[in-house]
Structures are given as structure tokens and as C-alpha cells.
Amino acid sequence: MVTYREREYTIHDSCVNRQALRLVAERYQVKADIYGYDKPEIINGYIPDIQATNNNKTIIIEVEGKDSINEDKKQIDTFKKYAQYNYNTTFELYLAINKTKCLLRGTW
Asked: Which stretches within the chain are classed as H helix?
């Protein structure tokens, strides 16, 4: 039997994978914190779900579930600040709804 947390983790990974594939198609070099990719670099103590670079542009992506979006506020704030203080860096926050639906919650 799959627990709620395991089900949410699977939904999370599906969303991360879709965003990683989108960025690969846009010719970014992608590191993702899921199977099959190199791990992203640690940013002020946290590992983002995705770190993608293309020339001088960097995109940091974090995907949260319905429950974890409020629990991981410190991590989200860390990525926002990182994007704010690093030239040509954008932070995108997604909410994983189900295996086929992933909503963009904000871009900084």
C-alpha cells in the first residue's frame, strides 16, 4: 500500500521531471534532484529540485506538494534571495497537484 507521503513524493518527482525535460528542450544544461540527472549544487544549505543553465542565464526550480509548500518556507525564501542577488538568475516555484498537473506559483 502506498502511503500519502509516498504518493505525494511520486507526484513531486513527476513534476520535477516534466520541468527538467522542458528545460532540456530549451537547450539548458539541467541538474535535477531526481534519478537520471546530476545533482544540483547546494545553495546556502539547500538543494533545489532543478538547477539549469544556458549561457549566462540560470534557473532554479523548487517543486512543493500541497502540504510541504508551507513547511519549506525557509528553503523557498533562500532560493528567492539567491535569485535576487545573483545576476541573470531566476527562481521558479511550482505546486505539484497530481502526476499530470504542476502549477507555477511564482517567479522571482
From this structure: 4-25, 68-71, 73-85
Distant-in-sequence, close-in-space partners of 99: CB < 8 Å, separation ≥ 6: 10, 11, 14
Dump pLDDT digits (tens) for 46-68. Answer: 999 999 999 999 999 999 988 78
Residues in the chain: 108
| CATH topology assigned to domain 4-107 | Trna Endonuclease; Chain: A, domain 1 (3.40.1350)
CA distances from 82 to 16, 44, 61, 69, 79 (A): 20, 8, 12, 18, 5
What DSSP element (H or E) covers 103?
strand 101-107
Radius of gyration from C-alpha coordinates of the chain: 13
